[in-house]
């Protein structure tokens, strides 16, 4: 029983005509015949009306009226025995009808039923009657279900609370005499029960009725109930009897002898005569006065309702001329707002710039906008708006009444004002169709129609206009200073509108008249709404799109029980959003707190067809709402097939754009007005045809959008023609106005709704209002561009992309760090070859192959881990990962590129190490040979001396050793290293390097020697600067161009000198790999710099110059190495050691301590080298995880931090360095930041000591492990060999130093040696820790690191190295292998020394403005004609340059240009730029705000 009211309401809200046919389901068959639980439909509806508030009562009566159910006029309350006139409940019912006199003009009457002067006849019963009053009424109305009767489901159940109920229904003609039963409208009232029991109701009906039709089988002349009848009384009887007497009975209608049809015709004729004669019509509104006099309650008499009515009346009662009212009382939304809207779009499209400089034109737009806002601010708050805000601010109970009264009054006004204009509009449209052959007339007609459309727009006045004014009041105030009183007074307005939205009232999202979104206002409203619901604002968004007047609003109203306007005198304009609260039971299932429904104006609207930009308008609207929605309903009427095709075209474009930003809404096609119940099966062919059409349109649209990889509709979304196509019958079951809603309509809509709910349940999305708000802001900014650019201007996409980049950078660094650590170990193993590899059969080549195989395996594992991380990341449900799905392949490719580059680095490093190690083999062999010879001689001498029994003093031993030494040295044939000619070697490598180039390039080497190069500074000669290769050439003077090229060459020389200095600092000999590496550096640096292309001639000269410098430097290094490693000199240096070992051996002294000290001295530099190698990655970690680490998480974040610091410093030289020498500037900046970071808390010392402690533990563990293997370690020599083997991946041991320790080392006291070595290592630990504690110059120590953290961070943050082809802003795209380059902020071309050729004045244009303008550029120096900036991607397909519409987005570089204009001009040999006045007014604060906006940085 408890579920029955809810079920009835649910059916009723869906306008289901079977709502009253609900019965209780029984658990047993026995209960089927038991009526004890059954309820009469009238009792059910009466109970619901009694339990409902005024707003639900309105909803119920509206839906009942749509179903052609009779609605309550007088509602009885059996508890209080009071009756209530349901005036408020009936106020929402609006009826349309046409009199027979209007049939020719096709005009009609539309008005609120409570205000209609419609004559009423009442049907009552006295005593018993064999005739069913309600049944006769239904037959009279030609509708079997208007009034509940005995033969309906449960109609025979005795009524318990509905006796005394007066119901009302209306007969409204359609103007067709063949159909209409009555030529004029008539109201029928039906009193339930015997009038003797309900005298007050009967008396009231007598007062308001033109006639009373009394059904009775008996009538007494003196009956009291008939005494006060003052209207015509018709007695309706089955058969006449003698008892029917009395003066009051003027007419008797007898059924006897007539069948039902004839009897109904008699009744019809009688009622027709009554309404023809009627004089005193009475509206339901006027009936309220009589009701009050008779003691009948009126539902509108509550204090809240009357107070709200009074407030609404104060606003609307004086509106005589809508246009004048809007001009005087709603001034902000008129011409000013429309001009502001046009300015907004012009900012994005720059169509009217003409020959003006773009930035000056944009400045003029900004000034105009400021003036318009100031004009708005000069208006005082009008009386109407003051009263409206008071009404909006009223109590929680009163406010909904106020808004409803406002809507009622305004709709009434619009209906009155628009009826005449609509008629004229329709006549003109018909005339236009008839006169199409007369072109001149047609043009006049179009102008007239456009003028009428403007008048209709001007005369239309609804609640949205008042809310629009609120929005403009708020937006105008937002442009005032924050401390302004006027601004503070407006801060509460968004909260009022948010509460209204929460109360279930729709608000305007897109202004239908200005075709614009007041973004600040909407943002504030949604932010307030988010706060009102305590951030519990997860939403699903449902949108409907389709041709005008195809029932979109009705579909939404039926589906969700909402109230989008469907008959307020004009179709929906713009887009309205409405919020539906999800009840607790469904929240978990649907994963949302609210469903937002967006209703849009019809696409292909005849109202807008006269406008030149109507197609563009439709495109904008479709793209916006599809972008905002989770479910898009494409509503199509079957009869509009041509227009349907146009709609599909617009929709397909929108879906393609959404796919680009990762948005994939669910799409359903709803075909309305499909009559056949088997339409779904019968239309299988149509569905197939629709899909074919969609595929064709997708291909065409994809071509237009330059997305030709999209070939079919299903490439954009999951779409199944069978489950995503819905066929819904027509709304009305016949010809209105006297037909009910089609039962099949509501059932089909209900099935569709259930499918939508399943879509919600399946989805993984979980977004809230803040997400919706960001999408609204981003999408609207995007659609304002005529070519619908969707890119990183979208803050949500930018945020999601930033997160992905940050994650990927973390994975990339983990991979690189792991490979670096492995590579250092492998390189150390190679350098230790011969000392740690004890198997003589293993060659260094074998070792290299083994390491290469191991590297390949580790690289594969590392790459796979990154790929798996990407897969896992894109499976996440949060972080908006769907928005960056299209970048997934970029990062997959980047992981492959990372692996490939790392493999090359590892391979080159290991090959270089092998070559260096092999290069040392000759020297090692010489030293080993000498050491072996000398060891044998010393051992021979020792044997000789011991055989001599006489005691030899130390002096004697020295003398014997000296003789042996001199003799041995004289016998040894000393053969040093062969001196190489480094210049000749380098020239040969350079020749091979250029061997694949053109003959001209190779000819430049002929006759040159490196000895002739590198001694004097490198100078770019006048013939070198011109770029002979194809590319974009700036229109700069040659001197400046040469200067830029000179700067590039100087920079490359500096980088190469840094490399040369680093190699000179190593203790190894020169190797040819050094020259090869230098040539790679030159190529890489020159290719990375796109600002100044290096000609082939200049390239060769530069390489000769650098190789010349390198040859001289490396020749000196090589000569010094040969001198230091001269065999005779080295042997002489070790003489004293041989002597002391000889004496110790002769005297049998313990060598354990001595050898331990010697070995620890060998360990110390190796340990220091290890610490130095390991610190670099740790410094990077310190920067990436310490304070301010967010700045290094992505390239975009890093760019922001640099530009912010430049702004804070405010120094021109730093800006100059950033623009002209980006790499050097950033590396120096990184080094400085690292220096500052490591200076805090002695971070560098802590890192050094951490790695010292780490390696000491490894050494100590190795000593302990070897000590415990005494069975294989027989002497100290073996002990040391095992130590080298154990530490072979960590420490590099010098072979000559190790050989020196091993020589004459035969002690077997390994335990003592281990103890001494442990002590020595401990002492070394203390000594080095103390040395690290001293600190020293951090910058010098950082520069000496083999792994330079500033270089590694730069490589990670520098990215691909590409720069914008126009302004040279750096690319910020993530990964190494992205397909598109982008930059968050572009700059004025004058900053990169662009100037006008004729005047030499610096150019201030910014490319992000130029790409949306009508301007043009030259692709090369030889181009004869310019190309449009709008088509820049044809020539630079790898670049995305976002159009700047915000005016403020590039304020940062405008401020810089304005501030340093004079100095830039001086530096570039140009004249200062003509700076717009608003640029000069910019402050550092403005620049910072602009920067934060461009980089999507939130406060």
From TrEMBL:
SUPFAM superfamilies linked: P-loop containing nucleoside triphosphate hydrolases
GO molecular function, a single term: GTP binding
One Pfam family per UniProt: URGCP_9th
Residues in VLIG-type G domain copies: 536-780
TM stretches of this protein: none
InterPro entries linked to this entry: G_VLIG_dom, GVIN1_dom, P-loop_NTPase, URGCP, VLIG_GTPase
Family of this protein: Belongs to the TRAFAC class dynamin-like GTPase superfamily. Very large inducible GTPase (VLIG) family.
Annotated PANTHER family: GTP-BINDING, UP-REGULATOR OF CELL PROLIFERATION-LIKE
Name assigned to this protein: VLIG-type G domain-containing protein
Organism: Hucho hucho
